[in-house]
Amino acid sequence: MDIYFVAVFRYTAGAHSVYKLGLFLRKRHNYLVTAGIKWYICGVDGHCEGGQKLKITVLDGAAPAPAPVAHGPDSTF
């Protein structure tokens, strides 16, 4: 059985934007089908440098899942 995930980006148009490896996402849904590292950034000046970026690692179906990462009480998602 294949399992696919969809990343949905919610933001105010004009205040933010989403780019994936140099591609502007015309839709706010991005299907995570192929294995690999996916980078998403905000294209508004200073936002990426300010931390508005996201790295998603999609594993090959044969690869073992990594151990979970513990987050402290000050972590936000």
What does the overall shape look like?
Answer: globular
Backbone structural class: mainly beta
Order of helices and strands, N to C? Answer: EEEEEE
Strand content: 25-35%
The level-1 CATH class: Mainly Beta
CATH fold category name: Immunoglobulin-like
Please estimate the helix content.
under 10%
Tell me the number of helical segments per DSSP (H or I, 4 or more residues long).
0
- Averaged pLDDT: 75
The whole-angstrom Rg is: 14 Å
Any idea what the CATH architecture is? Answer: Sandwich
List how many beta strands DSSP finds. Answer: 6
* Full CATH superfamily name: Cupredoxins -  blue copper proteins
- Gap between N and C termini: 29 Å
Count of the separate structural domains: 1
Largest sheet properties: 4 strands, antiparallel
* Major sheet strand order: 3-2-5-6
The low-pLDDT segments are none
